[in-house]
Amino acid sequence: MNIKDYLDVLILTGLFDEFSAKELLNFFRAHNFIIAKYNKNSIIHFESEKCNYCDIILKGQVLVQKIDEKGNVLTVAEFKIGDSMGGNLLFSNYPYYPMSVIAKSDTEILHIPKDVMLQLCQTSQDFLVKFLTSISDKTAILTSKIKSISMKSIRESIIEFLNYEYYTQKRNKIKLNITKKELAERLGIQRTSLSRELNKMKKDGLIDYNAHSITICDFHIIRKL
To answer: Domain ends where: 151, 167, 195?
Structure first.
């Protein structure tokens, strides 16, 4: 795989705005890197694995998941093409993945070693600032997600999801672009617990639902913006 084929993706990440396509090509030709392919559902990084690279997704989608001793899965974050991962761990005194990183679809990733990332930061102050901003934003998002999940009831988590989708889709019939299993993982609950609470909310007249959508029936659950 040739880095030349992915220059457009790298420029779209926002990290390399100051570089021209020619400058990026020359830089990567002079430094070590890896472009790796991962099949759907394969593990990209195991929990507790040492982070040796900053990863940039060139193709596909990636999930960050926590799996407990009972096998319950919590999807903490989802990253797509152009997103970067591992930057917050790479320069840490404890550079180990706290969760598993899994390919949601067939995925291609650019693995940039620590020394090359350091060279990029020294070469361009603009890259350095955008890299620091990126890892700070991701850390804040992950912290907020974990905090919200640990403090909310199942119903509160479902309502928060419905609020977000209501204002995103701009309608009361929320189309589900993920399966119930994936929704349960995103909310950090078991599939059976999600189904049980959805059924309770339906009986309470708050929602109606089927395999493909959830309809908001009582707008008192929707926060005003």
So the answer is: 151
Distance between the two ends of the chain, CA-based, in angstroms? 47
Structural domain range at position 185:
154-221
Residues 128 and 195 in one domain: no
Q: Are residues 146 and 97 in the same domain?
A: yes
pLDDT tens per residue across span 83-132: 999 998 999 999 999 889 999 999 999 999 999 999 999 999 999 999 99
Model pLDDT, residue 55 = 96
Please name the residue that has the structure tokens 């319950």: 72
Cα distances from 144 to residues 33, 88, 147, 151, in angstroms, run 32, 16, 5, 11
Residue 146 confidence (pLDDT) above 80: no
| Percent above pLDDT 90 for the chain | 56
Partners of residue 111 on adjacent β-strands: 34, 55
Nearest to 85 by CA among 58, 106, 123: 58
The β-bridge relationship of strands 84-85 and 53-59 is antiparallel
- The number of folded domains in the chain is 2
- Contact of 223 with 161, CB cutoff 8 Å: no
Are 145 and 84 within one domain? Answer: yes
Query: DSSP readout, 108-138?
Result: EEEEEEHHHHHHHHHH-HHHHHHHHHHHHHH
Decide: 198 and 209 in contact? Cβ < 8 Å: yes
Q: Is pLDDT above 90 for 1?
A: no
- Domain C-terminal end among 129, 151, 173: 151
Taking only the tens place, the pLDDT of each residue in 55-80 is 999 999 999 988 776 677 778 888 99
